Amino acid sequence: MGAFPDARGHFGPYGGRYVPEILMSPLEELEAAYLEARRDPSFQAELEELLANYAGRPTPLYQARRLSELAGGARIYFKREDLLHTGAHKINNCLGQVLLARRMGKRRIIAETGAGQHGVATATVCALFGMECVVYMGVEDMRRQRLNVFRMRLLGAKVVGVDTGSRTLKDAISEAMRDWVTNVATTHYLLGSALGAHPYPMMVRDFQRIIGVEARRQILEAEGRLPEAIFACVGGGSNAIGIFHAFLEDEGVRLIGVEAGGAGDELGRHAARFLTTTPGVLHGTYSYLLQNEDGQVALTHSVSAGLDYAAVGPEHAWLYDRGRAEYVRVRDEEALEAARTLARVEGLLPALESAHAVAEALKRARQFSGAVIVNLSGRGDKDIDIYREHFQDLDPPHADH
Amino acid sequence: MTHRTPTTRISRLFARLREEGRPALIAYLTAGDPSLERTPALVAALERGGADLIELGVPFSDPVADGPVIQRASERALKAGATLRGILETARRVRAASEIPILLFTYLNPALRYGLERLAIDAARIGIDGCLLTDLSVEEAGGWVSLARKNNLDTVFLAAPTSTPERLRLVASYSTGFVYLVSRTGVTGEQARVSEAVGPLVAAMRAITHLPLAVGFGISRPEHAASVGAIADGVVVGSAFVRLVEESAGSAELEQRIESLAQALRAALPERKR
User: Fold this and answer.
1) In this structure, which CATH number among 2.30.40.10, 3.40.50.620, 3.20.20.70, 1.10.3210.10 belongs to the domain B9-268?
2) What are A54-97's pLDDT values in tens digits?
3) Does the structure show a pLDDT above 60 at A24?
4) Per-residue model confidence as pLDDT tens digits over A293-349
5) What pTM was estimated for this model as a whole?
6) Which of A249, B92, B117, B131 is the most exposed place for a label (fewest CB within 10 A)?
7) Given this model, what pLDDT does residue A400 score?
């Protein structure tokens, strides 16, 4: 498959560095600092130590026997990123980038967040390293992820509501970029997904790659062979690229990315970027992009704030074009139902994002006879309000009387 | 670059102003705010007030380089139905009435969707003189620059206080017409005073290129124009005009207010004896 990206951050035609000139030198500096850190054994040793003793790696690979029986066919395993400190895979990348920021002498960290998981992970590592932390979040997302907003504040972060555009992740990233343009001398932008201008898609992937490295070793131990398929939800795509990457050369392993099908296939009702055939540039990278015929970025919808974004990470676009990974969509209702099923059958309450991957695995389990892995990228505590709103039959007004 | 340098109204303007010994007043407007129908009248008002070059901004849904004033203008323009196609049509109307140099100022994605080759051909045919694609870095610009050269369009690129000397050289080598120097690290918008980064940036760029240098971002008042105009070949004012549009769009006096601000800025520009 060769090593991607190339020296200029391209995954085939995708990726690259499409930003105003102000950010070009800072991105060059970041890339140089990252490449140096990547080669530095002391950087890697410190990161590994934190991943093990602070975040809780390695995460288990759990065989879900009751769910597998229910679904029929595949033996379903979960890669338990939901067990990590802060409740999702996001901490892997945050620990890597905060170490890098410290190495670069930056004391102020900014981040965007959709569901709040990346914001919480960023606020956490900033507390750990005594750094100033500002998190941008769309006001619509603040409303639906209130718990995480409070968690960030409790951790000492400043949460800034973004009240422009769709008031979701896309607008939070735009506002974080504006902050970075203004304060670039002192500030590191801790981007949370495999998105944005080079080197972010490469760097975030590298920090998340541990998911797949562990899962590959664990499944070989458990099964004596590789899995038939891997399922992961794809917003920007960091948990998916993180688990896919170690399996890219294993051609027999099907890589299945699950996007937010939202409420329907019309533009504006979903966040399924591979429904479009038109790439474009948003937030510094060239990739598949939901947009109207005038090149304006389309509004998106998903019950899951973490998947509700108009563009997909550029490496996914490249995997799609080459047919190495396939991308499907799961609707809001299917994801919600899968979450309830998983909670009842296995006692695991997934994040709504991860529930999309669970839903697809359940739907397709009968197509497989061996093992499949679902990346359980986050836990569902943050989504309790949404689950509660949706499953009102479980929460009658006077149930306790 | 393999093609020869374009000769456009932009290069002729700067050649003439060099003879006259004064810097250019460059005015930015978000096209389509408050409506595409009104944009030609606003451009005419700028020209009457003494603007030498018009930057016609194409609104984008996610303007990461812009501060709140131009963000809001973009939202208004998009809501009012502005599209790149419609803006080109509007530029055609402007061109029918005036020979003022026009620089199309846009984020990359609307241009990509329109088609870069089609844009270069259509813009040149309409009488637009050049394009600045805000988020097209020189590293990714090779294809666009060739298309623009082939169609005799200027390609203006941004240089910033953060640009390294190597990057300044790259930016200069990809630019024709003039180079747009960003006065400070930040987004577009009015500021109380001009950044101290301007002087060193102008000096660094002068050492690299003979192209005219225009300075923008944070320049809104006559005294800013006076100080920047003393060292640069062009002074770009954007948000101050856009804010007038926001405040007075419902008023018949908008054109007069735009013209007056242009006049005040133009009057403040220093004469430089050669």
Assistant:
1) 3.20.20.70
2) 999 999 999 999 999 999 999 999 999 999 999 999 999 999 99
3) yes
4) 999 999 999 999 999 999 999 999 999 999 999 999 999 999 999 999 999 999 999
5) 0.96
6) A249
7) 56
Question: Is B166 one of the catalytic residues?
Answer: no
B43 contact A CB<8A: no
For residue A238, which of A38, A94, A338 has the smallest C-alpha distance?
A94
Q: What is the pLDDT of residue B1?
A: 46
Backbone dihedral angles phi then psi of residue B178, each to the nearest 5 degrees: -160, 170
By CA distance, what is B78's nearest residue in A? A296
> Is the preceding peptide bond at A199 cis, omega within 30 degrees of 0?
yes
Model pLDDT for residues B129-155, shown as the tens digit of each residue? 999 999 999 999 999 999 999 999 999
| Contact at CB, A293 and B113, closer than 8 angstroms | yes
ipTM of the prediction: 0.95
Active site residue A158: no
β-bridge pairing A254-262 and A371-375: unpaired
**Residues contacting A40, CB < 8 A, separation 6+:** none
Distance of CA A355 to the CA centre of its chain: 13
Q: Which helix (H) or strand (E) holds A94?
A: helix A90-103
CA distances in angstroms from A49 to A56, A92, A126, A215, listed in the order given: 10, 12, 17, 19
Averaged pLDDT for residues A99-118: 96
For residues A197, A203, A204, A208, the Cα torsion angle rounded to the nearest 10 degrees is: 160
Angle at which helix A24-39 crosses helix A41-50, to 10 degrees, equals 90
Return d(Cα A387, Cα A391) in angstroms, integer.
6
A16 interface with B at CB cutoff 8 Å: yes
Interface of A with B in 147-206 (CB under 8 A): 164-165, 170-171, 174, 177-178, 181-185
Pick the closest to residue B147 from B178, B180, B174, B109 (CA basis).
Answer: B174
